[in-house]
Specification:
single chain; alpha+beta; six-stranded mixed β-barrel; 13 helices
Length: about 375
């Protein structure tokens, strides 16, 4: 009975209810777009660190876990490898560079990352070969560079860095392609660590470190479950370092927490606005049909049927609006250029849609209360 009454009214006033479904669809698009933007920006910032084939990351102490500020000497590698429970250690260096093209394409800002072949920090290669030389001018490139700029295995690429006040250009042979490994919003190019130390941006020519210094060290554990115990053990046995897991490392990167908090706050306010809009619409709807509700109650319809009718009406309109908004958002994300950091994952999408479906009944609670308070005789003017 309740479903029949709800669906009949929607069908008789389909224009009005469809327009309101479109309003819910716009709210859905906004909420999903903010969620996708938050996920995309987070992924562009943390992707390399999150996928790192190591459980712990070693920073210089008192640098607030900043990868750009941290300096860890490679002389600590052997000290770390001797600690029981440490399976392997790899040095990682971070810097920025530009990828230059000869076919009139604009240069591309990239993260130039120095890694040790075969050690933690070296990404898996899905096309071509991994880096095998410690000093060669070889590179493994981010999958995003390959897909967007047409770079292939066997190509030569030109990297520009700044030494002092001069531009320096270096040619690298692309030996392999990995998957998406962005670091700090830039696609990555991986080179042997000693090569990275030679070609990275420097204050003046010839100022490469005589004793090689990494930004961080990646530590792979024999038992990955012993994160906290091993972090404390390393800090007690190796001086001048701070050891954290991957999640702590990328959440401490500059602007990450503030950015995510801002976007999550925007998403929360949008949901709140959605509750108020839905609540206001159905409250007006209920006030307009007080006489009809009075007639239903006068002929013996119980409060339970009236309440179920209002709730089902809210749910049906919300489902239609969320469905339209979800499909529109998916089509919109597919149409956007690849460089825009928008990412809709399954878990995020499902959670957001479930939340949006819940705001309809929440926003309509006021209208349910109004419907239950209608007195038949008063509503009929008697």
């Amino acid at each position: 009975m309740a479903f029949y009454l709800a669906s009949r009214e929607i069908w008789r006033n389909k224009g009005r209810f469809f327009l309101f479904s479109l309003v819910i669809a716009l709210i859905t698009i906004l909420v999903l777009f903010i969620a996708a933007l938050a996920q995309g920006l987070a992924q562009a910032n943390k992707e390399y660190i999150e996928k790192l084939n190591a459980e712990l990351i070693v920073f210089q102490e008192k640098v607030e876990l900043s990868t750009t500020t941290s300096r860890v000497g490679l002389d600590k590698l052997n000290n770390l490898r001797r600690i029981p429970g440490v399976a392997d250690v790899g040095a990682i260096g971070f810097s920025s560079a530009s990828l230059e093209f000869s076919n009139q394409q604009n240069s591309l800002d990239v993260a130039l990352i120095g890694v040790q072949p075969g050690k933690p920090g070296m990404p898996p290669v899905f096309s071509g070969n991994s880096i095998r030389s410690n000093r060669g001018y070889q590179a493994v490139i981010d999958g995003a560079i390959a897909s967007r700029n047409g770079v292939r295995v066997g190509d030569k690429i030109t990297i520009k860095t700044i030494v002092g006040s001069e531009d320096k250009f270096y040619q690298l042979d692309v030996v392999g392609i990995t998957d998406g490994r962005q670091y700090f919003y830039q696609p990555s190019i991986f080179v042997p660590f000693e090569t990275w130390d030679k070609i990275r941006p420097q204050a003046a020519e010839g100022q490469g470190q005589s004793n090689l210094v990494a930004n961080v060290l990646a530590v792979k554990l024999t038992n990955p479950q012993d994160l906290k115990i091993m972090a404390a053990t390393i800090e007690s046995q190796v001086s001048g370092v701070e050891v954290v897991d991957r999640k702590t490392a990328y959440e401490s990167s500059p602007g990450y927490s503030a950015q995510q908090s801002t976007l999550n706050t925007q998403q929360g306010f949008t949901l709140l606005i959605g509750i108020l809009v839905i609540g206001g619409f159905f409250q007006i709807q209920t006030l307009q049909k007080v006489p009809q509700i009075g007639v239903l109650k006068a002929i013996g319809t119980g409060n339970l049927i009236v309440a179920y009718t209002v709730i089902l009406q809210i749910i049906l309109v919300t489902i239609i609006g969320v469905a339209i908004g979800s499909i529109s958002t998916i089509l919109l994300t597919l149409a956007l250029p690849g460089g825009i950091p928008i990412m809709l994952t399954g878990n995020t999408t499902i959670l957001t849609i479930f939340t949006l479906l819940m705001i309809g009944p929440l926003g309509g609670l006021v209208s349910v209360r109004l419907a239950l308070k209608v007195e038949p005789l008063t509503a009929l003017g008697m």
